[in-house]
Specification:
Elements lengths: L1 H43 L7 H8 L5 H36 L11 H14 L6 H22 L6 H25 L2 H7 L1 H4 L7 H28 L3 H6 L4 H23 L5 H13 L6 H21 L9 H19 L2 H4 L2
Helix pairs in contact: 1-3, 1-13, 2-3, 3-9, 3-11, 3-12, 3-13, 4-5, 4-6, 4-7, 4-11, 5-6, 5-11, 9-11, 12-13, 13-14
């Protein structure tokens, strides 16, 4: 009787976990299908409309000359870059928010992407560099800012509260420095640097896409390996230590992965605003099991950036196009204001 009574709660826990896993798989599948639908729309819609069967035929190498040019050279590179950038920023934001237990902890708010932007604009305006060197400069800038945040927030450990506050302060400093550089730049350099201020996936080459994809492919397995430690850290340092996880070391490795992902996204497309901030809360709410929901977050990020870029290309009349960062900013800013207005202050900012 006693044994049966004790087994009942355990069975309920196992059933709840199994239900959570099923829901998670359904959410991931649904998001993947939505992403495919947005991708199809991105490849079909435009001044030169291409039907879905023609897009499929072109992707298989059987399209005519015009379809080959429009789909393979104009639309597909932009779509692939948008998906890569969305996944990178979303994964980065999900890790930051889970490790630091703070809804404001996303790479664009705590200054990581602004560090990359400052380095890229410096390379363009001060040193007259261009191309892949600018991308590597952005990557280095993100890493340096992350290191500065870590060192300045360290007090026998890195707490989410200090990390976020120091990051916001550095973001303002980087923002001011970028503004000063632009006042000293000539008009051509300022126009070139503009992409690093708003974020754009327009006109990437396959070599840039390959570089970004390779970097994400290198980081993603590390994130997958570290994911169980992220779940343990959500239980608190004491519980994580009891489970055999070295909390501070795991936290550092996870934050390094998040910084690297943010740096890759910024180096590829500039600081596409609010993707990291928005994606993880949406994914966690959809999955609903209290997990970091990393796979779902990445897919939400892909959806946010690809759908925003589709809107940026076709929302305004007269063929006027906007950088994708303008659309994500317009979507993300109201959410940030709502979060600050209605969220429990003790949970949102602690």
């Amino acid at each position: 009787m006693t044994t049966a009574t004790a087994q009942a709660p355990a069975a309920a826990v196992r059933a709840a976990r199994a239900a959570g896993r099923r829901r998670g798989r359904v959410v991931v599948l649904g998001l993947a299908l939505l992403a495919l639908a947005v991708a199809a729309g991105s490849l079909c819609v435009g001044d030169y409309a291409v039907a879905v069967p023609d897009v499929a035929r072109t992707l298989l190498g059987r399209g005519d000359g015009m379809e080959e040019f429009v789909v393979m050279r104009l639309r597909l590179p932009r779509l692939v870059m948008a998906a890569l950038v969305g996944a990178a920023f979303a994964l980065s934001g999900a890790i930051f928010q889970s490790v630091l237990d703070n809804a404001l902890a996303s790479p664009d708010i705590i200054g990581i992407t602004w560090g990359a932007t400052f380095a890229a604009v410096t390379a363009l305006v001060v040193f007259g560099l261009s191309g892949v060197v600018v991308a590597f400069s952005a990557f280095g800038g993100a890493l340096l800012v992350a290191l500065a945040i870590w060192l300045l927030s360290w007090r026998r450990g890195a707490s989410g509260h200090r990390f976020v506050l120091v990051g916001i302060a550095l973001a303002f400093m980087m923002n001011a420095a970028v503004g000063y550089l632009l006042t000293r730049a000539d008009i051509h350099d300022a126009q070139t640097a503009w992409v690093w201020l708003v974020g754009s996936v327009s006109g990437p080459g396959w070599d840039e896409i390959g570089t970004a994809a390779a970097a994400i492919a290198l980081i993603a397995p590390a994130v997958a390996v570290l994911a169980p430690r992220l779940r343990a850290l959500q239980l608190g340092d004491d519980a994580a230590t009891g489970l055999g996880v070295r909390a501070e070391r795991a936290r550092l490795l996870l934050l390094l992965a998040a910084v690297a992902l943010a740096a890759v996204g910024t180096a590829a497309a500039g600081p596409v605003a609010f993707v990291g901030f928005l994606s993880a809360p949406i994914a966690r709410r959809l999955v609903g099991d209290g997990s970091p929901a990393l796979a779902a977050s990445a897919l939400v990020g892909v959806l946010v950036v690809t759908a925003s870029d589709l809107a940026a290309q076709h929302l305004l009349p007269g063929g006027v196009q906007m950088p994708v960062g303008v659309v994500t900013g317009a979507v993300g800013a109201p959410y940030l204001l709502w979060l600050l207005a209605v969220a429990d202050r003790g949970r949102a900012l602690a």
